[in-house]
Amino acid sequence: MIGEEYMERLKLTLEGIVANLKAKGIQERHPGFGGEGRVQTRKPSVPTDARSEFLANRAMGDRAEKRLAEAMARACPEWKISHYGETNRIAAGHPDFRASYLAGLEQTRRFGKRPDLLVFRATVNVEGDLSTLTHDQTKELVKQAIAAVEVRSSKFEALTYMAVRKRQRETGKRTGRDTPSFTVKVEDPVIVYRWLDCHPVPESYCQVFFDSVFAINFLDIFTIVASGTGFTVETPAKSQEKSTIMIPITSGVQIGTATSMPTLEAEHRVTQLGRHDAFIVPRGGGFELDAAAVKKVLLACQ
């Protein structure tokens, strides 16, 4: 699907998204699509410290993005995969963090949320890591991308989770959620759409579990939210109590299975004030992807 058609189909969902999120109590300042974001009249709150949970979650996310990119390159050798999303390694508490953090907010306000990965044809002359380059430095190159991917990690084994829930139901036991969910923060549709408005490249959302990978295109996410059914809005503690759109992973498609599990190693960081933060880092492991399923969900033009 070419970019112009993709954007036209996205635009058809926007009115429904605004109405349905508002009906679920989401403040109107979140669902406002199109153009640059409003300049904030109040100074944004800047984190002052990075604690163990943040460091562990970042390590999980880094591992998920790296392993998914490697698996995509193996499954689809006619593609090149480039890391593109923000990868600022300056931790909160560092003297340079404030300026870097505010610069990142301004980039997102103007140009939207950069996807983690970009997909190019193998014939395109592009580096494997574009994450340190600015919007102006990459805008012409991004025009050559055929797909974009937002990567999220999970601490669950999705296939195990669903198998256990199935057995519980069969024995008559009342259960909670039947499947894990794609977890989309309520501000994500707006800032993803803003990026797509500048770069009309079909974008998908990949949730990397320990045992599998599930994916859904943002066009399907927008369509589901616009329909008013097939999702809930929650405020889970693991998302820092931020309102989050929860969509069952069965609304997407399984595109990969783990070939090996990562090992979990303990690391620690000492802050400038001398506090020791211990956290777990996953290392290794890998995935095998279904190339046909990947291409279908990414809507990647060949």
Keywords:
Trna Endonuclease, Chain: A, domain 1; 9 helices; 302 residues; alpha+beta; three-stranded antiparallel β-sheet
Overall description:
The mean pLDDT is 88. The protein has helices at 3-11, 14-23, 52-75, 97-111, 135-142, 158-170, 188-198, 218-227, 291-298, and strands at residues 79-83, 117-121, 147-153, 181-185, 203-208, 212-217, 232-234, 244-248, 253-260, 263-270, 276-283, 286-289. It has nine helices and twelve strands. Helix 2 packs across helix 8 (218-227) and helix 4 (97-111) packs across helix 7 (188-198). Strand 5 and strand 6 (212-217) form a beta hairpin. The strands form three sheets. It has a seven-stranded mixed beta sheet with strand order 1-2-3-5-6-9-12. With 302 residues, it is of the alpha+beta class. It has one domain (3-32, 49-157, 184-298): Trna Endonuclease, Chain: A, domain 1 (3-Layer(aba) Sandwich), CATH 3.40.1350.
Tally of helical segments = 9
Please give the largest β-sheet: 7 strands, mixed
In the CATH scheme, what's the topology name?
Trna Endonuclease, Chain: A, domain 1
Number of strands: 12
Tell the overall outline. globular
Average pLDDT level: 88
The portion of residues assigned to helices is: 25-40%
- Computed over alpha carbons, the radius of gyration is 19 Å
Uncertain regions: pLDDT < 50 for 5+ in a row? none
Structural class: alpha+beta
Number of domains: 1
SSE order, as H and E? HHHEHEHEHEHEEHEEEEEEH
Strand content: 15-25%
Spatial strand arrangement across the major sheet: 1-2-3-5-6-9-12
What's the CATH architecture name? 3-Layer(aba) Sandwich
Distance between the termini: 10 Å
